[in-house]
Amino acid sequence: MFRLFAASLFLVSSVTFALAEELKPIEPLVRVVDLNVGEEVTVTLCDGSSATVKLLELKEHRDPVRLAVRSSDLKLEVNGEEIALKGGCYLLPQPVGAVKIDCTVTKGLNSNGTPTFWGLKKDARFRIWPVDSPLVQPGTMIYPVKQDWLATRTWFDNETVDGGPSILKKIYYHSGLDIGASEGLVEVIAATDALVVQRGEDVLEGHEKEAPTAPRSDVVYLLDGRGWYYRYSHLKEIDPSIQLGKFIKMGMRIGVAGKEGASGGWSHLHFEMKSRQPSGEWGTQAGYAIMREICIRDEKLEIIANARPGHFIVAGQETTLDGTRSWSAHNELHYEWQFDDGSTATGAQYAKAYPQPGSYMETLKVTDSAGNVDYDFTHVLVLDPDDLEHYPPGLNANFHPSQNLKVGDEVTFKVRAFRMQGGEEEWDFGDGSLIEKTASPGDSHPHDPQGYAEIKHRYHQPGHYIVTIRRTSAEGSTAITRLHVPVGE
């Protein structure tokens, strides 16, 4: 057994404090361990208690086309209790007696991915907290965009990125959080009190080599009192107040979301936290569970529908749609599915076959015992068995504002088609109004300033509106995407 070097998780260099005396040390509440199968470790937690963890078994699940790790099953012994733990996307720490634990990455992501993202040298990485502990100290971190939780498309921690002009065997397992956001409209803000260590191509002295920074015109890096670096990428513009060596307060404006840099052409914020890992290397500090906790607290959420992540199959195969990552403060949930083919189903999980290739967007509605309702969507990519080298055409859509929408407010919607020639987007705003049309370029350069088509709409009654955008190409391929727009009185 050995003891985790917890101190390295929250120390900030003396150089940093000389530059920013206001940046106070914050001890992270999380403890992180990397284990091989059969290995055991005893960890001192943030409250002074200890936990002993042993990894007994790891089984990773890969898809047959890209051989990407889509999920994993692990067996652990935690303080003498044997448990089963899931690894993968959009998962929360699991309570085990006096602690809670999650698995953020397993070794398979190194085999056909990018090992430098994680700095993992063993079989699996685990994070541990006291069971009643928040994941981060309240009041020290906020959501980095002025937008509702899961308002648009996301690629979160370890999610396999299935996109681009062709299907690659080299996998981009997403590190950090890609938060879909309307280009040029959604404000990006500082998640913590921090020191500015990179603005575009300029990096603060002392943070060029032994840090995860990397000069790029659309990127800002911040450093906080935990010793964690925060990356903000694809910014359409960076606020003039963001200057090297400047101490900034939580909530301060960083800039606005865009699609600059290696964005894949869709507008979003890439937000990523980097911390020292047990290997001694910098690696991603998984953010989904942390940001979910923050949004529930700060937005006073009572219900969250979550049908993510997406699905990647070949026509003729079956996949299980899963709403179990949904949540209610009132515990009891009822699940309803509405499918693109017009069929419906109930239940948290539903196995569905897809006989035809295409890009589908299936709708999940959850209702709790207090009458609260929420919606989410899952993207199902169905490949043509005669062409396993190309993705079907797709659509990316977003809207703004998403927070505190009221009857009569003007909403700006944007959409962009990918891998599609010909056709127009048809908009059903879900309120009985006439179908409207736009025509995004369909296959333009990723940084094309006119890449998104824009349309505006107003709602005249409060309610939950499901916006459906559909486009059929000149070759007859149809792509569908959806948005959930909640409108208050």
Record keyword descriptors for this entry:
36 strands; 3 domains; globular; 4% helix; Immunoglobulin-like; Glucose Permease (Domain IIA)
Parts with pLDDT < 50 across at least 5 consecutive residues: 1-20
Query: Approximately how much beta-strand content do the residues carry?
Result: 35-45%
Which fold name fills CATH's third level, the topology of the largest domain? Answer: Immunoglobulin-like
Helix coverage percent: under 10%
Query: Could you tell me the radius of gyration in angstroms?
Result: 22 Å
CATH architecture of the largest domain: Sandwich
The protein's oligomeric status is single chain
Chain-averaged pLDDT: 94
Structure description:
- The protein has 489 residues and is mostly beta strands.
- The protein folds into three domains: 6-130; 154-296, Glucose Permease (Domain IIA); 298-487, Immunoglobulins (Immunoglobulin-like, Sandwich), CATH 2.60.40.10.
- Helix content is 4%, strand content 42%.
- The protein is built from three helices and 36 strands.
- Strands 9, 10, 12, 13, 14, 15, 17, 19 and 20 form a nine-stranded antiparallel sheet that branches.
- β32 and β33 (436-438) form a beta hairpin.
- The chain is globular.
- The termini are far apart.
Topology:
Elements: H1 14-19, E1 31-35, E2 40-44, E3 50-62, E4 69-78, E5 81-87, E6 94-96, E7 99-106, H2 108-111, E8 124-130, E9 154-155, E10 177-180, E11 187-189, E12 194-199, E13 202-203, E14 220-223, E15 229-233, E16 235-238, E17 247-248, E18 253-257, E19 268-276, E20 282-284, H3 288-298, E21 303-304, E22 311-314, E23 318-322, E24 327-328, E25 333-338, E26 344-346, E27 349-353, E28 358-368, E29 373-383, E30 394-400, E31 410-418, E32 425-428, E33 436-438, E34 453-458, E35 463-472, E36 478-487
Parallel strand pairs: 22-29
Antiparallel strand pairs: 1-8, 2-3, 3-4, 4-5, 6-7, 7-8, 9-10, 10-19, 11-18, 12-13, 12-14, 12-17, 14-15, 15-19, 16-18, 19-20, 21-24, 23-27, 25-26, 25-28, 28-29, 30-31, 31-34, 32-33, 32-35, 35-36
